[in-house]
Write a structure and sequence with these properties.
The chain is of the alpha+beta class and 383 residues long. 50% of the residues lie in helices and 15% in strands. It is built from eleven helices and ten strands. The chain is globular, with a radius of gyration of 21 Å. The structure holds flavin-adenine dinucleotide. Flavin-adenine dinucleotide (FAD) binds next to strand 1, strand 3 and helix 11.
């Protein structure tokens, strides 16, 4: 594995950093307080290529590699994780599912719109009674002539109230995970309702919603993949999603490092900068180590994807380590800031609130350990 970035990758990172420093960083606290990012930034992000990365050019994307995608997600995580989630759910979870499992018509219909963010997608897997145990979901789709009729409820769905299309996983037979099928549901379909969940600890700028499906009728052409293949599609897509979450976490750790160094070198106590105290350097060294270790796990995983090698376990390791590192780093960065770290004058409190969900969604830390443990031992601890 070559650890150096190509000039193109460096150039994209610099472009992304510059854009986000101008368009996101000055506004992120306001968006956090308003509990909504200003969606006017979405088309600007699309113009830069954030949504089209890894969607092939023939479908209106940029067709980039996954190392570049990871860099983009890192920069988004450093600037504002709320923005990172919009991209990685819409063009990542939804776009990749369509790219790898859609019919040619579905790809032609949706991918150019997702790649340019003229339409946004959401990924509807979790339900009130099934989170980690998603294979037991109970939303159902019933065949009716050429159509399917969907009933059920989804919980904690990122982009839920902003999305034009929802990728909904529903039960088509009682056959456990093998009885789940995926559907592309336009969110303006009669019987579809999204209700925003307010009062989140972090990611406040991002719309998280409950979805209600009450007799939503879609044609069979809205089915993504084969009947009964839905759970497999969801799990495969989440492997790549974990790479995006992990990359965003690297951005959080990097942001914490920069904030802690800046504060420690400016703030004086006992007549000298607090950076000169060994115990403060200890905190900063831990954040720096977390940044390097998390980034290397992320790049290793992105490199495996780019080379067409199996990457599922590497994605779990990157996601597990980077998400726990993001919480640790934000906590350490607050410690460096003292009381100033506890209020919103500095970015570190928001980093901690945003980081906290990263160990929960797209598979909790415990679920990542079970995946890694299964790969190491050959024993499935899920059942
Ligand atoms: C802000 C936010 C955004 C989200 N976005 C989306 C989205 O866009 N789409 C979507 O489908 N979902 C989304 N989710 C849902 C998220 O993926 C779930 O919350 C997550 O998978 C955990 O499920 P749960 O909350 O039901 O927790 P549970 O599964 O009930 O887990 C509770 C606890 O039990 C542990 N646990 C469960 N099973 C085991 C086991 N077998 N062994 C050991 N420990 C176990 C877990 O690790 C956890 O600690 C989002 C959640 C949040 C908070």
């Amino acid at each position: 594995m070559d650890l150096s970035l190509t000039p193109e990758q460096e150039a994209f990172r610099a472009l992304a950093r510059d854009f986000l420093e101008r368009e996101a960083v000055p506004h992120r606290m306001q968006w956090d307080h308003d509990e909504s990012v200003d969606l006017a930034i979405v088309p600007k992000m699309a113009e830069l290529g954030f949504f089209g990365l890894t969607i092939p050019e023939e479908y209106g994307g940029v067709g980039g590699d996954y190392v570049t995608y990871s860099l983009a997600m890192e920069e988004l995580g450093r600037a504002d994780s709320a923005l990172r989630g919009i991209v990685s759910v819409s063009s990542g979870l939804v776009g990749k599912s369509i790219l790898f499992h859609g019919t040619e018509e579905q790809k032609q219909e949706w991918l150019p719109q997702l790649a340019t963010a003229s339409k946004l997608g959401c990924f509807g897997l979790t339900e009130p009674d099934t989170g980690s145990d998603a294979g037991n979901l109970t939303s159902r789709a019933t065949r009716d002539g050429d159509d399917w009729v969907l009933h059920g409820q989804k919980l904690f769905i990122t982009n839920g109230t902003w999305a034009d299309v929802a990728l909904v996983f529903a039960r088509t037979s009682p056959d456990g995970p093998r009885g789940v099928t995926a559907f592309l549901v336009p969110t303006d379909a009669p019987g579809f309702e999204a209700r925003e969940i307010k009062g989140k600890l972090g990611l406040r700028g991002q719309a998280t919603a409950e979805l209600f499906l009450d007799g939503v009728r879609v044609p069979d052409s809205a089915r993504l993949g084969e009947v009964g293949q839905g759970f497999k599609i969801a799990m495969g897509t989440l492997d790549k999603g974990r790479l995006a979450v992990a990359s965003g976490c690297v951005g959080i750790v990097q942001g914490c490092l920069e904030a802690a160094v800046a504060y420690a070198t400016e703030r004086t106590q006992f007549g000298r900068p607090i950076a000169s105290f060994q115990l403060v350097q200890d905190l900063i060294a831990d954040i720096s180590l977390d940044a390097d270790a998390a980034r290397l796990l992320v790049w290793r995983c992105a490199d495996l994807v780019d080379r067409g090698e199996p990457y599922g376990v590497a994605a779990s390791k990157a996601k597990l380590f980077a998400s726990e590192a993001a919480v640790r780093a934000a906590n350490n960065a607050i410690q460096v800031h003292g009381g100033a770290g506890y209020v919103d004058d500095y970015p570190v409190a928001k980093y901690l609130r945003d980081a906290r969900v990263m160990t929960l969604y797209e598979g909790t830390s415990q679920i990542q350990k079970l995946l890694i443990g299964r790969a190491e031992t050959g024993v499935n601890a899920f059942v």
